[in-house]
């Protein structure tokens, strides 16, 4: 059996694990890519929700007298949130790019 495993002549043994047939590598990578995208979407929704809460609580907590100061403060917070969002998107895109570099096609067509 070790010899057939090493030579690849018994591909059924190689391709089975715990009685379940393994998927083709490209299919596994596709599923991983979809999981990364799904995790990003879920994480993105939580991230946006948490940052909206942060913006609102900051604006409510900081009772600023002049409306221009409120606007400036809001824009400052909004810019910080946008920068964090871009950093997160870059992180997830980097994961997708690493899989794509292996020749994985994520299109389900």
Q: Could you list some keywords that capture this structure?
A:
4% strand, elongated, 2 strands, 4 helices, 109 residues, single chain, mainly alpha
Kindly describe this structure.
This protein has one domain (25-101). It has four helices and two strands. The chain has helices at residues 2-7, 11-15, 25-61, 67-101, and strands at 16-17, 20-21. It has a two-stranded antiparallel sheet. A hairpin with a 2-residue loop joins strand 1 and strand 2 (20-21). Helix 3 runs antiparallel to helix 4. The longest helix is centred in the middle third of the chain and has 37 residues, at 25-61. The two termini are 38 Å apart.
């Amino acid at each position: 059996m070790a010899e057939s495993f090493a030579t690849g002549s018994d591909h059924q043994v190689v391709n089975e694990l715990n009685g379940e047939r393994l998927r083709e590598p490209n299919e596994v990578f596709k599923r991983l890519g979809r999981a990364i995208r799904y995790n990003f979407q879920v994480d993105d929704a939580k991230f946006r929700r948490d940052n909206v809460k942060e913006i609102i609580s900051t604006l409510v907590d900081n009772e600023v007298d002049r409306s221009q100061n409120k606007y400036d403060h809001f824009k400052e917070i909004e810019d910080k949130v946008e920068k964090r969002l871009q950093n997160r998107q870059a992180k997830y895109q980097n994961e997708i790019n690493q899989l794509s570099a292996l020749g994985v096609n994520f299109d389900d067509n």
